[in-house]
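Bumping with the actual sequence this time:
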Amino acid sequence: MKCSLVLIYACLSVVFFFHYSLACQLVHQTCKRIADGDPNVSYNFCVLSFESSLESSNASLEELGVIAVDLTLSNATYINSYISDKLLKDTRFDSSAKACLKDCHELYSNVIPNLRDVLDDFKRRDFFEANIRLSAAMDASTTCEDGYKERKGLVSPLEKEDNIFFQLCAIDLAFTNILH
């Protein structure tokens, strides 16, 4: 009896390891393909993004696309909250900097429902519409940064966040092309 339990456990461990290994391989292969095709996406960033989601460990390519959009939506929600809950309350920013922050907050506020629609597009496999919506969403990060560049002497407190959001959108856009 003990021997058969050990054998069953060993077999299940091998199956689990093989399945996990294939899923990890899919993430790495997909991220390599995306990073090779887009100089704005770091391979390591792509892999780490998927590794932050437990669901990606056993996801299909289509499911990875949905996970990617979900990560982008979570990131946009975080940035929006970070601006309203922390940065706009920070007394170190003058009125010009706060005006930029308010513009960025409005941009990310508009992106959130747009990304929810992208999730629906992915689930319906409407990658054409998802591509259009993602391109618009991606503009939020560059428009936010441009607002600071247009005002002499201002440094964006969102540069890192905007860059992360931009890369996440680029990954999502790559999925619209891969899955189309």
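The tokens above came from a reply further down the thread. Confidence is low (pLDDT under 50) at residues 3-23.
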